[in-house]
Write a structure and sequence with these properties.
The complex is a heterodimer of chains A (about 260) and B (about 240). In chain A, helix 1 packs across helix 2. Chain A is an alpha+beta fold and about 260 residues long. Chain A has helices spanning about 45-55, 95-115, 145-155, 185-190, 195-200, and strands at about 10-15, 20-25, 35-40, 60-70, 80-85, 120-125, 130, 160-170, 170-180, 210-215, 220-225, 230-235. In chain A, strands 1-2-3-4-5-6-7 form a 7-stranded mixed β-sheet, with helices on one face. Chain B is about 5% helix and about 45% strand. Chain B has helices at about 1-10, 215-220; strands at about 20-25, 35-40, 55-65, 70-80, 100-105, 115-120, 130-140, 140-145, 150-155, 165-170, 180-185, 195, 205, 225-230, 235-240. Chain B is mainly beta and about 240 residues long. Chain B starts with a helix and ends with a strand. In chain B, strand 3 (about 55-65) and strand 4 form a beta hairpin. Chain B is globular. Classes of the chains: A alpha+beta (about 260), B mainly beta (about 240).
């Protein structure tokens, strides 16, 4: 199960600017997970993002701001979602970014159905910006995921399950799996290129998929993440695995002589 | 012990490039390369993949290659056959699209770890002719635009490219000779030519009239079966 804040967030209406803010003071204990502060000029969008954030169990994102498209997205009519991450949380940044794309994709589609202010893009704290207008995606079909099936797939690759987290969203599931191997290179050679499909099958069917493979010490060696509604994928592999990369790659660079 | 480790490393299978490229490459002989752009016309029919599991893209691309490392920033149109994923090898996965869709991909230039990101966008209409550009906009940020509308801004760890590409690519993950029949027009008459810029942000575009395919022949016609119209644009890149 995903972690949730010890206490529910309290929505605070900022009377000065008419915005909806999610107060962050409702936490206790030094080790308590902290939900992000959510601000929005649109009350409905702020509430919807709070709901999505709680479903995803987001605790490693410091703040989420929903506001009129600006800067690079200034030409679009609608709101953009901006994220600030907690670099000290210990969670890999790529996972926080994955949560951001999953959440924004869900919010975008929910806003479209509800007739709310359109969500036109996402901006991360490092300046990364993606325009999300006009993006379609195959139907989300997976409403549950079996831990047994995932464990079996990991077993077949000689991986040990470390964590299995399923976020039950309104219309599908986002699943995060962390596994471990004592032979990173050996695993990479045999399974690195198709590990994601072995574990999840068709990733288009989920709200999001996140697969992390750690070494025996628990340090990440491989990460592949996909947010289906935002149609955004990201990945990272360590120096150990890099020599085996590009054996099945669409992102091939030129065949440099 | 050390002998055993060394022996293990020496038996490591080398990463193989399984792409089948067709198109044109321009190196940085004319000057520093801060971006490229061209119109790409979406075919009116999908590729007949048959039993083929593979991917196809037609794109503009800025790369920094060398020393066994490669960084890229590219975008255009693509589709995949029989639920083949758009992926970047081990480093990332982006699901499949079995009809023409716009896309963007990036790989940081690295000598150690690999970062990869991919992004599908919505589908163009059959026969639609759109201008795609990848441009360095300053401070190591690159951006991808469609018809002048910004789609992606990315913090990359390379500031300029040493190669620009306008062309096609098949990849089935197995063989660099895999291909299906396809024909894509670049810079169709009256639209954006294949151009380069040496200005941050994309001011000052120059139409590319000379290629560097003699330097990287496999990057222009990997299997020797591609046909390409002559430079400058408009030209069509086709595979039988």
């Amino acid at each position: 199960m995903r972690r949730f804040a010890a206490l529910a967030l309290v929505l605070l209406l900022d009377s000065a600017c008419g915005s909806l803010a999610a107060g962050s003071g409702a936490t206790s204990g030094a080790t308590a997970a902290v939900e992000p502060t959510i601000t929005s000029s649109d009350v409905a969008l702020g509430s919807a993002m709070q709901h999505i954030s709680q479903q995803l169990g987001i605790t490693d994102i410091t703040s989420i701001d929903i506001g009129p498209a600006s800067d690079h997205l200034a030409g679009e009519k609608g709101d953009q979602v901006s994220f600030t991450f907690d670099a000290s949380s210990g969670q890999p940044l790529i996972k926080s970014e994955w949560e951001a794309f999953v959440a924004t994709g869900v919010l975008r589609d929910q806003a479209a159905v509800a007739g709310s202010t359109p969500i036109v893009g996402i901006t991360l704290s490092n300046g990364t910006t993606v325009n999300l207008t006009g993006i379609d995606h195959p139907k989300i079909t997976e409403t549950a995921v079996s831990k047994g099936v995932v464990s079996s797939a990991l077993d077949d690759m000689g991986l040990q399950l470390v964590s299995f987290q399923v976020a039950q969203m309104d219309s599908g599931v986002a699943v995060s799996v962390t596994a471990r191997t004592g032979d990173v290179a050996g695993w990479g050679v045999k399974f690195g290129n198709d590990a994601v499909s072995r574990v999840f099958g068709d990733i288009n069917g989920y709200e999001g998929t996140y697969l992390e493979v750690d070494d025996a010490q628990g340090d990440p060696e491989y990460v592949s993440a996909y947010a289906a509604r935002a149609a955004h994928g990201s990945g990272w592999i360590s120096d150990t695995l890099r020599p085996y990369d590009d054996t099945n790659g669409f992102g091939d660079t030129l065949p440099f002589p | 012990m050390w002998v055993l480790i060394a022996a293990g490393l020496s038996s490591t299978p080398a990463a193989a490039n399984t792409s089948n490229f067709g198109g044109y490459i321009r190196d940085n002989t004319p000057g520093i390369l801060y971006g490229t752009r061209a119109s790409i016309k979406t075919p009116t029919t999908d590729i007949n993949w048959g039993s083929g599991h593979a991917i196809f893209i037609a794109r503009v691309d800025a790369e920094l290659d060398g020393g066994g490392s490669g960084g890229l920033y590219q975008g255009g149109i693509g589709e995949t056959g029989n639920q083949t994923e758009l992926d970047g090898g081990m480093a990332g996965h982006c699901g499949y699209r079995d009809t023409w869709h716009r896309f963007h991909e990036q790989k940081n230039f690295t000598t150690s770890t690999v970062n990869y990101e991919c992004q599908w966008f919505g589908p163009p209409a059959p026969g639609e002719n759109d201008a795609y550009s990848v441009v360095q906009n300053g401070s190591d940020y690159w951006q991808f635009n469609i018809n002048g509308s910004l789609k992606v801004v990315s913090l990359m760890n390379f500031s300029s490219a040493n190669y620009l590409v306008a062309g096609d690519e098949f990849n089935n993950g197995v063989s660099s000779s895999f291909a299906r029949q396809v024909s894509v027009a670049f810079g169709a008459s009256g639209s954006t030519d294949w151009q380069r810029t040496s200005t941050l942000g994309g001011g000052g575009w120059y139409t590319i009239s000379n290629d560097s395919c003699s330097v990287l022949p496999a990057g222009c016609n990997t299997d020797g079966l591609w046909s390409r119209g002559s430079l400058p644009t408009p030209f069509t890149v086709s595979h039988p």
